[in-house]
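WARN retry 2 of 3 for item q-0093 after timeout on previous attempt; input resubmitted unchanged.
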Amino acid sequence: MKICIIGNGSLGMFTAARILDSDPNCDLTMIAPKDRKNGASKAAGLMLNIFSEIDAISYDMPLTKWKLKNWSKALDKWNNFFSPEGIVLNKEIYSSLGTKIYFDKNSSNNLERMSYEKLKEISANYKVSNKTENDDNIFLPYEHSVDSRRVLKTLDDFVSAKSKLINDYVDKIKVFKNNIKVFTKLNSQEFNFEKVILAAGSKSTEILRNSELDFNLDNIPVCLNGIGTALEFFTELDYVKEHKTEFILRSPNRRGTCGIHMVQRTNSIYVGASSVVSDKNLNYPRLGSVETLLKGLKNELGLSDLVRQSLNILSGYRPVSQDAVPIFGAIDSNLFLSYGHKRDGFTWAPYLSEIINNWIMHRDNNSEDNNYLSMCNPLREKFNCFGSYEKSKDLYLLNEEFSYAQHNEEYNERIKNNLIDRFEKLHKTKEFSNSVCHPELVNINYYLLNKDN
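OK item q-0093 returned
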């Protein structure tokens, strides 16, 4: 069978490895830029997080509930994927053994407090958190981290030995009855395949828009660039002590804005992550995002001793769908879409790759898999993320208020009224273009527009 995977991020690579392990004789081709420029997977801190991503706003959304119900499945698939008997042979892949959530009463805001309390409640109910001597800490022993570069290198070695990589971008695809034609952008090549998996992150929407397909693209949520920024600290001078951390250290999430987190990499410390959403391809990190991370490192994690380390700024596009739900599922017998997972791509990739492999091999998934496929189906019913118009507006203003607090910027009635005007104008004009904002404004707007329709 001739199979093509478009994209070489976490979902693309795990899917390729899964397919090749299932059928070593498979004729598999990957089409993607070899350097993964601006790729989310390349810039990821790779925390295998489920519970540490809980926040006070989205904890009761159907997607969050599904993740909590199936959390062990995702982590078990990681352990099985990288093991002596697994698909990829790699020992000692973890760089941090567990996650510690810190809540600083002096510098944290109300939304962080609410998220911290909700995380503490839910993780205790699921018996996945350990008590600490300090009430301002939560320890999650199952949520490890892995060096993303090491994982990608391991997968690259495994996949490249058994498949072909075309170092190019896909411009468009054309679906026929028995095959799919794929057209590349840089070298203007054409290829024919029996099955195609589109896993090109936020670039997937652009590819679909250029393509010739047998369905209405308006029914598929647009995927935007969630631009994540992170910092990598490392030691270059002999007299500067190398910094190490045994556990992931992080503050609570604030819905669209991640908590500040510090993660051990092989020879460096990773600090992330700031995220905004844009329909533009922004090629450089924003100064405000870097400044926020540096402030958070000191104020929220209480760490200022990294100032003597050397610094590398990382940036990558996190694919964020308009309704905050991943775009995952087959849209016909030949084409499968797999993108829009935002911060969850790496965590769930070993599990989701199994679902895709079952589709390739015409195997049935179990009922829980089908539940996920139904919820994330690219042609799904419009997803109600936030409820009423007024609730949507309140959530947007709440996120913006705490964003201002995070940046140590003044938030007053004039600013609030300007934000209300922005929200109402976007809802009225039904347009989101040439803009940079928090994910909530996009998610809320998408729901409201489809509610009107």
